[in-house]
Amino acid sequence: MTWRSGSRPVISRSIHTSTSATLPKRCARLSSLPGVEIPVRVLRPDAVVPRVAHPGDAGVDLVAVEGRRLARGGGRALVPTGIAVAIPEGYGGLVLPRSGLASRHGVTCANAPGLIDAGYR
Fold it and tell me: What's the start-to-end Cα distance of the chain, in Å?
């Protein structure tokens, strides 16, 4: 992937809803909807905590911590983000590909939209 935000590839735009919770060390809170937050645990020191870039955005950018080279014509790869999120019961998280990845680079999420259920840990 070559599309980047700063020095790292942006792989997805995600819509998240959550609730406030007590967080252990090395965690942050993510909020993409007014009054709704999602706990984010940083798993790697080079991870970028997602945040809302502009008021009114429907989601946040999910940033890769490692690049991957894909084979032409349908290569696949798992791309680590270095974070973990705790979706609360009754909600779900969506991982959606950025339109520029597909139109400019032919890259998309294989299972788009990717659904993160509340029970997935």
Answer: 27
The pTM of the whole model exceeds 0.85 = no
Distance CA 2, CA 44 (A): 21
Give residue limits of the domains in the chain.
4-117
Domain 4-117 classification at class level: mainly beta
Chunked into runs of 10 residues, the chain (121 residues) has average pLDDT values of: 41 42 52 68 92 81 84 81 86 83 80 86 76
Interior/surface letters 68-79, b for 16+ CB within 10 angstroms, e for the rest: eeeeeeeeeeeb
